Amino acid sequence: xxxxxxxxxxxxxRDGTQxxxxxxxxxxxxxxxxxLDEFGIHYIEGGWPGSNPKDHLFFQxxxxxxxxxxxxVAFGSTRxxxxxxxxxxxxxxxxxARTPAISLFGKTWILHVxxxxxxxxxxxxxxIDDSIRYLKSKxxxxxYDAEHFFDGYKDDPEYALKTxxxxxxxxxxxxxxxxxxxxxxxxxxxxxxxxxxxRITAPLGIHxxxxxxxxxxxxxxxxxxxxxxxQGTINGYGERCGNANLCTIIPNLQLKMGYTCVPEDHLSELxxxxxxxxxxxxxxxxxxxxxxxxxxxxxxxxxHVSAVMKDRRTYEHIIPEKVGNSQRVLVSDxxxxxxxxxxxxxxxxxxxxxxDKVPEIVNQLKKLEHEGFQxxxxxxxxxxxxxxxxxxxxxxxxxxxxxxxxxxxxxxEEPRSEATVRLKVNDVKEHTAGEGNGPVDAxxxxxxxxxxxxxxxxxxxxxxxxxxxxxxxxxxxxxKVRVLIESCTDExxxxxxxxxENIIEASWQALTDSVQxxxxxxxxxxx
Length: 527
Prior knowledge:
Helix content is 39%, strand content 20%. Strand 2, helix 2 and strand 3 form a beta-alpha-beta unit. Helix 1 packs antiparallel against helix 11. The radius of gyration is 29 Å and the shape is elongated.
C-alpha cells in the first residue's frame, strides 16, 4: 500500500541556473516548465521577479499558459528592514508576478541576521511575520524557505525554532528546512528534523545542497522523518556542487520507499525528461547518473552479462524501463561469448548459425580494443564488424587511395583544405576531389562525389558530430587518436570509430564505416 503523497517542488529554473555553465533563455525556461508540468511536478519555481528582467518576462509569459499539474512559483526574500511590507519593492514584485504560490526565504542563522542583515534577532522575526502576513492577505500560498536552517539550528536551536514558529503563526502553508551550505551529515539532519517535528505542527519541507555529496540521502531521510514537501532540481543542477537531484529522489521515493510522487504511468518519462533538460541547457548528460544515465544499466563484464541474460535482477536494482531507461550490454576487451551473443541478438544477428565464428569474433574484438578501438559508443562499427566476419555483407566500395592537402598562404588567411579520393565500386574506378572547411570535411565531400552516382541515397545522411580523443598522450604529437563520428538521417542515428597515429587515417576509417553502415541498412530495408 502506498504511503502518503509527496509534493515535488522543482527549482531548476531558479536555483538550478545558479550552477556554473548553466544559462537559460526565457524560451528555454518556458519549454522546461511545460515538460515538468507534463511529468507531474507540483510546483515549478520560475525565478526571482524582482532581480532581473529575464525572470520578470518569464512570469509574464508563463501567465499566458495553462498548466495541468503544476503551480508556477515566484521566489523572493522577506521585506527589507527599513520598509513596510506594503511598500517593499521585492514583495511588490512577487505579487506582480501573479503566481498562485510564492516561495519566500528568511534568515534562520544568527550569523546571517547579525552580519548580513545587521539587525537584531527580534527584528528578524518581525520581518518574517510581516512579510508572510502581507502576502497571505493577497491570497497567496506561501512556501517559507528557512535559509541555512540546519547551520542555524546547530548554532542556536531555540532561535532557529523561533523563526519557524514566526512563519507558522503568520500563516505559511509549508516550512522548508534548508541545508543551504550542504554541509549537514545525515545523522545530524535526522535528529534535527525529529526535534523540529515535536515543536512544529505545520507541514515540513526539505531543501538540500550537495556539498557533502549527501543531498539525495538527506532528502530521503527527511521524508522518512515526516517532511512531505521535497525541493530539488533536474539532474542536480545548482550552485557549487548542485542541489538535490530529483531524478534520483523521485524513483527512490516511489519505487523503493512506497511514496506517491508522480502518476505511476508518468515515471517512465523520467529519463527523457532528464535528457531533455540537459539538451536545453546545452550540457553533456552525465552517463553515470543513477536511474537516468546512459551507463545506469550498462553491463560490460562477461560474468555480469551472462547473469543478466538469465535473470536481470542479478545485476540490476530495478527494471530500467520503469524510469524510461534500458538495459545495455557493452562490447570491449572484457567481453566474453555472453556479451557477443547478447549484442548480436540485439542487432538481430543469429550467431547460433555461426558457432565457429564466435571465438574468432571475440579474439578480433579484443585485438582491436588493444589497438585503441572502443565499440561501446560506436555500435555502427561493431555491427559492421560482426556482419563482415560472418560473411553476411561485403564492402560496398574499396579504397584505392586518398590524398589531403592543407594550404595556408598568409597568417591572417583561413587555411584551404582539399582532398582527393580514388575508389572502386563494382570494378568501376572513381577519382574525385573536394574542398571543405577542414581535412575531414574535404574527405567527406570528395567521397560523396565519388559515390553519389552509384548510391544517390547517401544524400539522406549527414555527419552530426565529430570527436577526437588522444589515446596515449605521453607520445605527444606521435600519439594515437580515436575518432568517433556520429551520423544521422531523419529516421535514426549511428556512430562509428577509427583509430590511428594519423588523425586523417582515423577519420577516414570512421567516415567510411559510417557510409558502409548506412548503405547496409538501406539494403536491409529494401529486402
